[in-house]
Design brief:
Belongs to the mitochondrion-specific ribosomal protein mS29 family. Its main location: mitochondrion. This is Small ribosomal subunit protein mS29. It comes from Panagrellus redivivus. This protein is an alpha/beta fold. The protein is built from 17 helices and 13 strands. Strand 10 and strand 11 form a beta hairpin.
């Protein structure tokens, strides 16, 4: 067998190195969300799997997208303009400014929930305390156990929803549990029952643990936790992200019936009232990021707010995601992997991110 001359071997080796160096898909310069810039638009960055698990992404992301992440065993997300706008709002938060209110709005499937999840991850990397409601509409439309409030006459408590929220809060803030949240102390005595109380100057984590240990007190514990976090944020002891999917459901309708069989209003739900207080101007050093969901009313009373519209994919964004799916063998048919197939996906999905992802999942 004839051997290649040394010059040819060197040329072949250089070409192989060049091919190896080519990125199979368009990656951002950094996986650190705080380092993302306009040059990274339309590129993918990775959220570590451990961080995604700690933040309960399997619960806060759309279910089909969460299943895709589990299958691929990684969390790669596009850097899009709406996320950079949210980052600018984060950077404007100050102890001297009232809590900044931001509303994500846009067509179905254009990335509102995904952008909110990206914001939760950013807050996690910056050691912000995170108050994340997976879906406010669960509180108003998914009926679980109901009890009358002992704290405020006429109010309705939702113990099971409150326990679920406290569990979610504890998991998402494990990175701060034994530091910031333990070091911060209660500012007053909380008397829950004749025998149960949390005295002044106790760790905030005690409030959470009280609610988890005694579900019938959980709703009151959520209210106390929210009050303490607003106070400590305003003092400069922490920065606070309040992230709510379907936040306009705080002002929507409910399917919860009262004793006389009439429907309760959102004004009568303790959990709703506790989170509406974050829309006030009486606290500082935080960001309230909420999604206006078209399943609910569109005239929620949260003015003034900063509106950020989520958009359809650009051709470059769809192409970057197509390249990623090819690299991960998520696209299995030759037709879908081809340039002609990509153009058909453009046409069928009409550049809607949700429809594009679903079409890729079936090809």
């Amino acid at each position: 067998m004839a051997l290649l001359p040394k010059s040819s071997v060197k040329t072949l080796f250089s070409a192989t190195k060049t091919l190896t160096a080519i990125r199979p898909y368009n990656k951002a310069a950094s996986d650190d969300p705080s380092q993302l810039a306009r040059a990274d638009l339309g590129k993918l960055y990775h959220i570590p799997v451990d961080a995604a698990k700690n933040l309960n992404f399997n619960k806060i992301l759309p279910s089909k997208y969460a299943k895709q992440l589990n299958t691929l065993d990684e969390c790669a997300i596009l850097c899009r303009p709406q996320f950079l706008e949210v980052l600018h709002c984060f950077q404007a938060v100050r102890p001297t400014f009232p809590g900044i209110r931001v509303v994500l709005w846009g067509r179905f499937g254009t990335g509102k929930t995904l952008t909110l999840a990206q914001a939760v991850h950013y807050a996690y990397t910056q050691n912000w305390v995170i108050l994340n409601v997976r879906d406010v509409m669960d509180w108003t439309r998914v009926v679980k156990d109901v009890q009358m409030s002992t704290y405020r006459t006429g109010r309705i408590d939702l113990p099971e929803h409150s326990v679920n929220f406290l569990n979610h809060f504890k998991q998402q803030n494990q990175h701060l549990w034994k530091t910031i949240l333990t070091d911060l102390k209660t500012t007053k005595d909380y008397v829950w029952t004749k025998t149960e109380k949390t005295p002044i100057d106790k760790p905030l984590t005690d409030i959470v643990d009280m609610g988890l240990a005694s579900p019938f007190l959980a709703n009151d514990c959520v209210g106390a936790l929210c009050r303490e976090l607003r106070l400590h944020a305003s003092s400069g002891a922490l920065k606070l992200l309040v992230a709510m999917d379907a936040g306009n459901s705080l002002y929507g309708r409910t399917v919860i019936r009262k004793a006389d069989r009439t429907f309760a209003t959102t004004d009568e739900l303790s959990l709703v009232q506790q989170f509406r207080k974050f829309f006030r101007d009486d606290w500082t050093n935080g960001l309230v990021l909420t999604i206006a969901d078209k399943r609910e009313i569109s005239d929620a009373h949260i003015d003034p707010f900063i509106p950020i519209e989520t958009q359809l994919y650009t051709e470059a964004e769809a192409k970057a995601l197509h390249d990623y799916y090819k690299d991960k063998q998520w696209l299995v048919t030759d037709e879908a992997r081809s340039e002609a197939g990509l153009k058909q996906l453009y046409y069928l999905a009409a550049f809607n991110p949700h429809h594009f992802e679903r079409l890729c999942a079936f090809n």
